[in-house]
């Protein structure tokens, strides 16, 4: 047994010393060697010191059979013992080792490759002795229709097996002796160009060709073999095809046979190309088929190209074109246009305006009934009782235009249009197309005031600027907010800019306001004409009368209420004051420049009367029932004569006193009477009665007035006392002390005459008596005045006498009833 360590060593050698592996030896041996054997091939480099070993030669597959090889142990040469045949075995893989008897390898293994060098000892031969081929007319020249096959056993890749084909002869040699050409290397038999042209004209053949195959390539020498080729000529069946019409969506079993082509030559492979690529195929028999349903809408036509090819994939002839037409079926619904945003159409658009055009698409074949679409308007339906429709639809074009029925601004209308193919015939397909239409507003309405006449509005003269006079409201029938915006203006009646307008831009209300002070004097009334118009431009007829409003303003005159010079009036009168006595005068306060009308409000006793214009308050009658110490309050009202509603009032307080002692008044004889200056509280009674019986007749009352002389009017005051007498007093506080002749006009029974009442005005003592005689008075000593006094005295005497007679005459009547204090002057006579 080999010790374990030795085995390990043995195993590790190839790995440990790879460079110790000997190179393979290559040895060539000529095939069919004709010399002596053994033939020494090569010397092996065996080690000499280990000669006790045994040389072992083994085959490539580990076989011990070394065949014709051996190693000469003496010389170490590898030798071959007999001739080798390459065709039997071309190479030998040998291995030489030096081993001990027990099989331990001392040297090697040395690989040796023995190559048998080829000798052209093999003859080529055809695969068939006779080849038969069909040749179709129309086969293109140079396209092989037959491939001759030949083989040579000699070493491939060497000249010994390099075969060449040749046509040796052609029978018949007509119409051309070289109708065919044979590829020398490939053995591919094809028509020659000359042969092709002559074959096209007439049907020839058959032809018999003698063909040769020879080895040694193009060298003249070499082995050769021959074979016969019989070529029969057949008519071409490779003819153009009619177009094929295939229905789409065809329900048959697939693949479905649709046509057939045939190449009458031999060894044909059919090939199909579809443009564009489609579900078509061709089988080996030339049967064309379709593999699935077609869809015209995907692809309406295909152009197929069919080729008849030889084994090398070369076309025998020009490819055949085949037109496949997919026939339409009404399998597509009309497709509505995609819904867009709502269409806008202005109101009042003219009839016939095209609103939109509904164009549905049908994918079926164009210009066929399947894609012939007609339209029908389903909605909106005509209004009940309306004359026409709002929209009209042209069934052919799908054009939607405005009809007779008017649009209304702000309307949203859904148009429903039915699109039907097959021109609307039964069995067609249809779709409902919808279009939303919005009717937009246009500014066709002018704003109008709700009221055209406002007022009259009364405004006091003193209202402050800024005061609201009136609010006018206008409306606009348009919808669009921009078309409702209004502008206001004063068109007339505002020359001085007294009025102004205020408004909010987006409201229909406008305020007419005062801008300046009103003045009644300048204008007692105003007619303000306000107009309204749209901010936006108006379409259509202009604004009507409603765009104008008239505000009538009346100015109220402002007059302050009348004012009296005192807030209350007070006076004291004796209870014995006779009727007609002036108590006081109520009058307006100084700056007042207007006429007042006075009246008593609550003179319940009827004691007083007031002069309407002058404001003088008199006793209306004797104060019967008044008691001394009492007060009597009466309300006096003063009204503006022009503006009766303006009035004021004041109280009039009368204190009653004890009856005053009889005033020193003197009646006739006129000469003896006198009045005190400064004025005292008494006067002169003037009787209206006349001695002239003509004048004194009748019983009506007498009336008295001072003469027209202004001085007289200023100095004197005459008040009626009773029906026949008047009471003459000084009007001024101071009247020049002298004798005065006061003209008094008396009217009675429609007759008037004048009295001259002589009154002596003098300074008086406390008792009211004249302090000086008239004659010594200042300004009296003139001759003229002395004569005047004398004449006056005489006249007075005369007058006195008349009075006496009159008195006597009256006394006889005895019906005079005089109060004691009413005749104070008699005593002084
Ligand atoms: C308007 O009237 C007021 C008082 O009534 C007065 O104070 C003001 O001055 C007047 N203005 C004009 C411009 O006359
Ligand atoms: C009073 O009014 C009258 C007319 O109205 C006028 O003529 C007169 O001048 C006025 N007098 C005064 C003091 O205002
Ligand atoms: C008249 O009216 C005033 C004020 O109202 C009142 O003070 C007075 O007593 C009245 N006089 C009579 C007589 O009624
Ligand atoms: C009718 C009447 O009463 N007349 C008297 C008017 O007053 C004078 C003076 O007081 C009398 O003398 C009249 O008798």
Automatic annotation (TrEMBL):
Segments passing through the bilayer: 786-810
Subcellular compartments: Cell membrane
Domain Cadherin: 21-126, 127-336, 337-449, 451-564, 565-671
Main localization (coarse): membrane
Pfam families the record matches: Cadherin
Entry GO CC: adherens junction; basolateral plasma membrane; catenin complex
Coiled-coil regions listed in the entry: none
Signal peptide segment: 1-20
MF term (GO), any: beta-catenin binding
Keyword Membrane applies: yes
Keyword vocabulary terms for this entry: Calcium, Cell adhesion, Cell membrane, Glycoprotein, Membrane, Metal-binding, Repeat, Signal, Transmembrane, Transmembrane helix
Membrane topology, as annotated: Single-pass type I membrane protein
An example Gene Ontology biological process: cell morphogenesis
Stored Gene3D superfamilies: Cadherins
Role this protein plays: Cadherins are calcium-dependent cell adhesion proteins. They preferentially interact with themselves in a homophilic manner in connecting cells; cadherins may thus contribute to the sorting of heterogeneous cell types.
The protein's name in its UniProt record: Cadherin-16
């Amino acid at each position: 047994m080999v010790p374990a360590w030795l085995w390990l060593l043995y195993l590790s050698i190839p790995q440990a010393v790879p460079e110790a592996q000997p190179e393979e030896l290559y040895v060539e041996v000529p095939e069919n060697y004709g010399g002596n054997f053994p033939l020494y091939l090569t010397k092996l480099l065996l080690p000499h010191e280990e000669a006790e070993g045994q040389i072992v030669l083994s085959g490539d597959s580990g076989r011990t059979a070394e065949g014709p090889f051996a190693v000469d142990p003496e010389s170490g040469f590898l030798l071959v013992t007999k001739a080798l045949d390459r065709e039997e075995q071309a190479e030998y893989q040998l291995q030489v080792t030096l081993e001990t008897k027990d099989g331990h390898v001392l040297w090697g293994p040395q690989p040796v490759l023995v190559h048998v060098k080829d000798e052209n000892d093999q003859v080529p031969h055809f695969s068939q002795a006779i080849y038969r081929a069909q040749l179709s007319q129309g086969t293109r020249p140079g396209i092989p229709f037959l491939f001759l096959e030949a083989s040579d056993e000699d070493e491939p890749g060497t000249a010994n097996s390099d075969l060449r084909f040749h046509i040796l002869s052609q029978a018949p040699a007509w119409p051309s002796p070289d109708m065919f050409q044979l590829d020398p290397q490939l053995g591919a038999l094809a028509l020659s160009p000359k042969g092709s042209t002559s074959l096209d004209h007439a049907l020839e053949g058959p032809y018999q060709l003698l063909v040769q195959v020879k080895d040694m390539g193009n060298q003249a020498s070499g082995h050769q073999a021959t074979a016969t080729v019989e070529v029969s000529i057949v008519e071409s069946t490779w003819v153009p095809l009619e177009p094929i019409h295939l229905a789409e969506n065809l329900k048959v079993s697939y693949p479905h046979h649709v046509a057939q082509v045939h190449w009458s030559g031999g060894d044909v492979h059919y090939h199909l190309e579809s443009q564009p690529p489609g579900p078509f195929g061709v089988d080996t028999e030339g049967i064309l088929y379709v593999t699935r349903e077609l869809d015209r809408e995907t692809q309406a036509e295909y152009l197929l190209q069919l080729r008849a090819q030889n084994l090398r994939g070369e076309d025998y002839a020009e490819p055949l074109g085949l037109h496949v037409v997919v026939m339409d079926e009404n399998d597509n619904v009309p497709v509505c246009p995609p819904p867009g945003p709502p269409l806008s159409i202005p109101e009042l658009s003219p009839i016939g305006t095209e609103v939109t055009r509904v164009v549905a698409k049908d994918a079926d074949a164009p210009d066929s009934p399947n894609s012939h679409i007609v339209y029908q308007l389903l909605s909106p339906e005509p209004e009940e009782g309306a004359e026409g429709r709002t929209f009209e639809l042209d069934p052919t074009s799908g054009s939607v235009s405005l009809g007779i029925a008017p649009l209304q601004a702000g309307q949203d209308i859904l148009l429903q249009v039915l699109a039907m193919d097959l021109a609307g015939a039964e069995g067609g397909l249809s779709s409902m197309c919808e279009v939303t239409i919005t009717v937009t507003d246009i500014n066709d309405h002018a704003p109008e005031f709700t009221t055209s006449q406002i007022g009259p509005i009364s405004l006091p003269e003193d209202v402050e600027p800024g005061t609201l006079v009136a609010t006018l409201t206008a409306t606009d029938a348009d919808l669009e907010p921009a078309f409702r915006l209004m502008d206001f203006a004063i068109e007339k009646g505002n020359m001085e800019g007294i009025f102004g307008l205020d408004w909010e831009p987006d409201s229909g209300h406008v305020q007419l306001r005062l801008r300046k002070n009103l003045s009644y004097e300048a204008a007692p009334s105003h007619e303000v004409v306000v107009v309204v118009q749209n901010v936006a431009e108006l379409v259509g007829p202009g604004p009507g009368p409603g765009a104008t409003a008239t505000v009538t303003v009346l100015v109220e005159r402002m007059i302050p209420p009348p004012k009296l010079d005192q807030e209350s009036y007070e006076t004291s009168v004796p209870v014995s004051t006779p009727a007609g006595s002036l108590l006081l005068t109520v009058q307006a306060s100084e700056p007042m420049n207007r006429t007042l009308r006075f009246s008593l409000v609550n003179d319940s006793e009827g004691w007083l009367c007031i002069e309407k214009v002058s404001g003088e308050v008199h006793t209306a009658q004797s104060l019967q029932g008044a008691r001394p110490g009492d007060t009597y309050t009466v309300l006096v009202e003063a009204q503006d004569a022009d503006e009766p509603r303006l009035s004021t009032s004041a109280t009039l307080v009368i204190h009653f006193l004890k009856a005053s002692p009889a005033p020193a008044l003197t009646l006739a004889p006129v000469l003896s009477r006198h009045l005190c200056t400064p004025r005292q509280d008494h006067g002169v009674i003037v009787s209206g009665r006349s001695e002239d019986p003509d004048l004194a007749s009748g019983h009506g009352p007498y009336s008295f007035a001072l003469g027209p002389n202004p001085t007289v009017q200023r100095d004197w005051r005459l008040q009626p006392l009773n029906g026949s007498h008047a009471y003459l007093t000084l009007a001024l506080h101071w009247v020049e002390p002298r004798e005065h002749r006061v003209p008094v006009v008396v009217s009675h029974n429609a007759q008037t005459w004048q009295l001259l009442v002589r009154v002596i005005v003098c300074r008086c003592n406390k008792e009211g008596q004249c302090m000086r005689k008239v004659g010594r008075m200042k300004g009296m000593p003139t001759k003229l005045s002395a004569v005047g006094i004398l004449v006056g005295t005489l006249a007075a005497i005369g007058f006195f006498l008349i009075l006496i007679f009159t008195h006597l005459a009256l006394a006889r009547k005895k019906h005079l009833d005089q109060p004691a204090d009413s005749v104070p002057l008699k005593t002084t006579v």
